[in-house]
Amino acid sequence: MFxxxxxxxxxxxxxxxxxSSALALVLAGCDASAPEPTPANVxxxxxxxxxxxxxxxxxxxxxxxxxxxAARQATSQYTAAxxxxxxxxxxxxxxxxxxxxxxxxxTPLAGxxxxxxxxxxxxxxxxxxxLNMTPGDWAGSxxxxxxxxxxxxxxxxxxxxxxxxxESERCPTVQGDPLxxxxxxxxxxxxxxxxIFEAGGSRIGRRNGRAYMFTIxxxxxxxLKPPPQGYRLILAGRIASYPNGRAIRxxxxxxxxxxxxxxxxxxxxxxxxxxxxxxxSEWRPG
Length: 286
Fold this sequence. Notes:
15% of the residues lie in helices and 26% in strands. It has 286 residues and is α+β, with helices and mostly antiparallel strands. A hairpin with a 4-residue loop joins β2 and β3 (128-133). Residues 37-63 are annotated as: Disordered.
């Protein structure tokens, strides 16, 4: 208990010691409860951001089988006068198709190549093989120019896709009847690909009646032999559209005839290949 009586000078050192001890205890308590300061060089972790969504992969290129399937649907819709969907999913799609040709041998006579159909013939007295593909001039055809909504195209170069009942890109393996003596010609062409060139557009890539040609020459003294599996014509590009927004247009002279269907395209590449895929020659616009 504190005393109200005056203290003597002898008591002063004792009081000072007591006060100093009390202050030391107070300061020690403050130091124990105070949080340690955060070092200035500590790096805080950044918040983890979710990964960005992946952009959808582009659709695959259309093949020969896709062309045949699309033409089959277009044929059915045309014959039944069915109204197709408002938007044609084919328009804008890329494609690359292989057309087997020369499967039964050379064209009978040089110069008998049908426009729009690839073939090969012997050249240089049987020493070389000449591949030939002359696009047809379809700009004035009834299917394209004779319709009510005729497109404003400056040129239309046509390519037929033979045997539209066969999805394979190889030569057919079925053999003809050996007892058949009459000359059986090819069935009429009913599926075509039109390379279009719009009025006022670029003329790069137009053939203007010129054929795609390539000559195969022998290596060394060994003579060339007819290929048992023929050759391949490669057509690649992008699907275009007619004025009505459709990629395919069909027509027929009557209800009992198979319609002819033509796909509108912008060609980017034409090439000749051997049956095993070996490149022989190619053409690209520009």
